[in-house]
From TrEMBL:
Keywords: NADP, Oxidoreductase. The keyword Nucleotide-binding does not apply. PANTHER family: PINORESINOL REDUCTASE-RELATED (PTHR43349), PINORESINOL-LARICIRESINOL REDUCTASE 3-RELATED (PTHR43349:SF34). One of its GO terms (molecular function) is oxidoreductase activity. Residues 6-302 form the NmrA-like domain. InterPro entries: NAD(P)-bd_dom_sf (IPR036291), NmrA-like (IPR008030), NmrA-type/Isoflavone_red_sf (IPR050608), PCBER-like (IPR045312). This is NmrA-like domain-containing protein. The keyword Thylakoid does not apply.
Length: 328
């Protein structure tokens, strides 16, 4: 019991979302007293209500709190040592209220805002993403100006995004005959499973090495180009696909011709597979490498042991709906 009392109390905002629920689970696995914040409306949505009941059964303290209710939000924050936001993109700027409550509460030792994607201070597409990354950067600057201790999580793509279709917009499954490859197919992107992102995040919350740093998740076996992915898939299906290389100019025109938000998938493809926004830079003094810091965290990888061909049979081993590869 004494050991458990030493564990930081973790408050997860947006606990019923895809990332939020993984953070709650990872916090519990790590033995942290865990609090989950959900809006009142979540309790009347069957699958969310069921999830919240399962949290309670697992020992989570579930709090019914709205971000617009400052007093209740402050009360929730005062119960925590660590606050993690998993709010969806549409609510990024609502974290400003959360930041003010953290500042007023004065007890939070670490705040992790809702990023869980490419580093907004590194991406090269700020003129075409309709403010998606600008909002994240705005939240970063507010956190820093308020002097709030923090860690930013940069994991790039989730494995459930684009990977199941082999990066074929509008499709849910990988192609069997013809595949589109963007640019020359050599720029490398990063894919990480949501539960693994949560495990690395929770590992970092009390670590002084990650304080006021960006925690980059770049599992070596998960840093892949489109050419790598196509090679893997062709070996799996024992068939060569017809390759249609889409040059940068054509992709940019497609983005311009398609209305927002329908074009955002293409924008993210442009960012990762043309501009190389996931991997074009080295991790500097402002960041740390999660894989090096936490070698004991097991994670799902596309290419175990960094070798593609000997492990191709493990890729998309459940066709076509799931992508699960290997755990290292």
């Amino acid at each position: 019991m004494a050991e458990e009392e030493k564990k930081s109390r973790v408050l997860v905002i947006g606990a019923t979302g895809r990332m939020g629920q993984e953070l709650v689970k990872a916090s519990l696995v790590a033995g942290h007293p865990t609090l989950a914040v959900a809006r009142e409306s979540a309790f009347s949505v069957p699958h969310k209500s069921s999830l919240l009941r399962s949290f309670v059964d697992s020992g989570v303290t579930v709090l019914k709190v709205s971000l617009s209710d400052y007093a209740n939000l402050l009360g929730a924050v005062k119960q925590a040592d660590i606050v993690i936001s998993a709010l969806p993109a549409a609510q990024y700027l609502e974290q400003k209220i959360l930041i003010h409550t953290i500042k007023e509460a004065g007890c939070v030792r670490r705040f992790i805002p809702s990023e869980f994607g490419a580093d907004p201070d590194k991406v090269q597409i700020l003129d075409m993403d309709m403010g998606f990354y600008k909002k994240k950067a705005e939240i970063r600057r507010l956190i820093e100006s308020e002097g709030i201790p923090h860690t930013y999580i940069s994991c790039n793509f989730f494995m459930t995004y684009l990977l199941p279709s082999l990066v074929q917009p509008g499709s849910k499954i990988p192609p069997r005959d013809k595949v589109k490859i963007y640019g020359n197919g050599n720029s490398k992107a990063v894919f990480v499973k949501e539960s693994d992102v949560a495990a690395f995040t929770i590992s970092s919350i009390d670590d002084p090495r990650t304080l006021n740093k960006v925690l980059y998740l770049r599992p070596p076996g998960n840093v892949v180009s489109m050419n790598d992915l196509v090679d893997l898939w062709e070996m799996k299906i024992a068939k060569n696909l017809q390759k249609d290389y889409i040059p940068e100019e054509k992709l940019l025109k497609n983005i311009q011709d398609m209305p927002y938000p329908d074009n955002m998938e293409l924008v993210f493809i442009y960012s990762a597979f043309i501009k190389g926004d996931h991997t074009y830079f080295n991790i500097d003094e402002g960041g740390v490498d999660a894989i090096r810091l936490y070698p004991n965290v097991k994670y799902t990888t596309l290419c175990p042991r960094l070798k593609l061909r000997p492990f191709l049979a493990n890729f998309w081993h459940v066709f076509p709906s799931k992508v699960l590869i290997s755990t290292v």
